[in-house]
Amino acid sequence: MPALTIESPVGPLRLVAEGDALVALRFLDADDLAHSPAGGAVDRLEDGADAPVLAEAAAQLAAYFAGERHDFDLPLAPLGTEFQHRVWAALRRIGFGATATYGEIARAIGLTPAASRAVGLANGRNPLPIVVPCHRVIGANGTLTGYAGGLERKRILLDLEQGALPL
Predict the structure, then answer these.
(1) Tens of pLDDT along the chain (167 residues)?
(2) Global pTM?
């Protein structure tokens, strides 16, 4: 699968495509970069394949981080269960700069707030963070809760959106 690693205000991101769709966006740390096929290079297609969706995703992410884009218009094909897809679709309906609780997401997909834990698990398995904005989900008491990219990244993303300031 073609992949592209780019720099961002929340650290290096690896974009992965399959066919004409984006299938994953991964937060990378120094260890990931040291062991990458591209030797840690960024802004380079890692397997030499032509993947226009990766270039478009990189451009849209750059515009998002510059405060010029509030949502993404990309072909997506994340792998997941039917339930996970329902949760991820609900995440995409949370507006730029807004937040929702796990219970609110559960209600949005026709479940009771008691399904919050299942929603949280699906949220945590989102293979397209930022593009499918799982960072916009917070705890019932308004606090930041777990985020696959780490709470510091979640805070940066929320601050970017709520202040609408470029990073």
Answers:
(1) 899 999 999 999 999 999 999 999 999 985 554 445 544 444 445 554 578 999 999 999 999 999 999 999 999 999 999 999 999 999 999 999 999 999 999 999 999 989 999 999 999 999 999 999 999 999 988 889 888 889 999 999 999 998 855 55
(2) 0.87
Is 114 among the residues known to form the active site? no
Q: Which of 134, 137, 157, 158 is catalytic?
A: 134
- Residue ranges of E strands in 10-134: 13-18, 21-27, 44-45, 100-101
Question: Which class is 82-163 in CATH?
Answer: mainly alpha
